[in-house]
Amino acid sequence: MLxxxxxxxxxxxxxxxxxxxYPGTPSSEVPITFSRIAKKxxxxxxxxxxxxxxxxxxxxxxWCGVRSMTALKHFGLxxxxxxxxxxxxTGVKAGFVVMVSDDPNGWSSAQSEQDTRYCAKMxxxxxxxxxxxxxxxxxxxxxxxxxxxxxxxxxxxTTTKTSHSIGTVKVGKIKKPKRKGFFKKSHExxxxxxxxxxxxxxKVDAKLKxxxxxxxxxxxxxxxxxxxxxxxxSGVSYDYFKEAMQMLKISPPVLKLGMVNPxxxxxxxxxxxxxxxxxxxxxxxxxxxxxxxxxxxxANPKLVIHGKDxxxxxxxxxxxxxxxxxAKVFKKKAPNFKAxxxxxxxxxxGLPPRKPVFCPGCPHRSTFYAVKQVYGNKAVFAGxxxxxxxxxxxxxxxxxxxISMGASMGLSHxxxxxxxxxxxxxIGDSTFFHASMPGLANLAYNDGKAPLVVILDNxxxxxxxxxxxxGTGVTGxxxxxxxxxxxxxxxxxxxxxxxxxxxxxxxxxxxxxxxxKKKGLRVLISKGECRLVTRRKVRRGGGxxxxxxxxxxxxxxxxxxxxxxxxxxIFELREKKGEKPKYWINPEICWGCSVCAQICPYGAIKPxxxxxxx
Amino acid sequence: MKFSVMLIGVGxxxxxxxxxxxxxxAHEQGHFxxxxxxxxxxxxxxxxxxxxxxxxxxxxxSPGIMEGDADLVLAFEPLExxxxxxxxxxxxxxxxxxxxxxxxxYANLLDLPYPPMKEIAKRVKPFAKELMVFNTAKLxxxxxxxxxxxxxxxxGAAVGxxxxxxxxxxxxxxIKALAPRMVExxxxxxxxxxxxxxxxx
Lengths: 614, 201
Known about the structure:
The structure holds 2 protein chains of 2 kinds. By secondary structure, chain A is α/β, with parallel strands linked by helices. Chain A is built from 22 helices and 22 strands. In chain A, the strands form 5 sheets. Chain A has a 7-stranded mixed sheet with strand order 2-1-3-4-6-5-11, sandwiched between helices. In chain A, strands 8-10-9-12-13 form a 5-stranded mixed sheet, sandwiched between helices. Chain A has a 5-stranded parallel sheet with strand order 14-15-16-18-17, with helices on both faces. In chain A, 53% of the residues are buried. By secondary structure, chain B is an alpha/beta fold. The longest helix of chain B has 17 residues. Strand 7 of chain A pairs antiparallel with strand 2 of chain B.
């Protein structure tokens, strides 16, 4: 079972009844799994338009005494943040779990390696942190009980490798969810304004104090061992450490932390008493290490504390990262990775890299290509978050920056207020609903006429696995809903709107040229379904997509289709370096979008009908 | 006992599914299983490494494989086999490679030629206790009209060659448990792979 599936299972075993989320890797398999099973399990599930709305939806249900949950990535928590702190103050009437995934190493196109543990302190919420999928299941259940017992929302934090690792999991019984609740009015509980506010602040602190005294120890495991050097560890680092212990043949005393806020002070103080040294193993920042330093001041001032002095606060931990630090502290010999690294470097020398690219037939590639035809390389390309971040790579290089969901609107506005450069703001459809409407309204209202807004509409939240959004026409539970037209919203805000098919260079170029001449707020909506979905639909329906071929007689070997358009299905074949190439389309991976045929200046690319192969 | 398999290939070509098959088969055989799937950006035509580790619960806890510590590399694409060398070593690693090349866009863009299989083997050999090359994707395309079944066939080849300690029955059970489309075809492809692996010995 995947870590995220184990979390879903844990929530079902805890009787969760309402789940709302906006997909964000590495947490996305939690909503994906709920989306699949919600109806059968009697759970209400929705893909909300963004994380703030999702958090509020789940919190509202929890206020009514119904167990609820949201799952988000670290940046998702930032989006929800406005509502998180006040809800921690009001508290909840039923278990409310906020699952949050940090992403050291940025596997998921993350824009920073944010460590969310600090948010738990800031927002005054308990935070628990499992290591393996098995523990993820157990902790999720405990998180619901803890939340309900103390009437406080609880963070369940993972890092990528807890969420995305698989492991054998023993499951329990699923509890029937209680879906009906009732909102009981109470000024005392819900009026977050002074003078009650201070009282609420005192109340939430008292809850945390009680949790620290009575509950933190339940998530802490102390293992006896040999010697005066101890190890304090949490999260997935524990799973690496367990195996490293065997490999290095060491058995030191170990304290495994499962709750990082409120901090298990009593347990840590007891553990460090009498120790000469401790090594703290935690991914990202020195959160635990700083707390241990604080504890040591009174409990053991002479204690030597190791952690980020020998381990990085960036990237993920794994055996290679922690083994050298352990070997150093415990005076053992670590495997010589350096010699091996050199051999690997030699083996890889001169080989072409395989960076992620737009899929064959991707509508975004076609849109970027057309924008480049009309605007060239010099315009500022304001990037955003979605599959289109892949436009950052060569040969496009058309995402000059990408800061956060919807940020292309505001940033391009700011740039055009002080610079005369041409600016294009790219945004996706799901991102449009998520966080771009306020930015677009701002452009419309505050004289933001300068940037051209290009909306890349592929009908889904494609990057995280084709989840639906309000423009899709289907809900997270698979029910049909009236789709909201992005075009109508832009028009209502007073924008000059053009809609073009992403798969027609002619339409795209004509619309872009037309908008380039216009004044006022201008929006191009490039509409083309994600080709992965089209292909899946055609395959399931037993239909056909065309496959394109290059006529070798007509091909003048100009290289536009490979070097400028760069579809991964088109190849430049050369037996030897320096030899004239032959251009060829691999029929296995051509998904028939036809755009290469449109951009070929010699009309050398033609379709042939072919059944979609498995 | 602990056994570490690295599966590597190109995003979208069924590497994750093959990883799930190995993990499920190990589970059916009563092993404790850990592993990692990588999602997100890397899925789009990028290089996809997947780890599956199985054996006794006392010995395995890390989801990932340590540098040079893989017992088996299953490479569904030759160039990716070279990228797996980080996790391989002459002392313990067997390589089972499908020679179905999938040229990266960057071979064109950076004018770095895609090396022939001979050169790939040369680069991999310093890290390989054993090296076997098959052409399962092409065979599967020919026999079943579905190149993706080549993945199941390659898993079969590793089992047949005795390089992946899974029982045939466990893999059959896993195929049924995972219930992808084409259960029967997958079992046939697996069995064809086992034969290939035995013959390759």
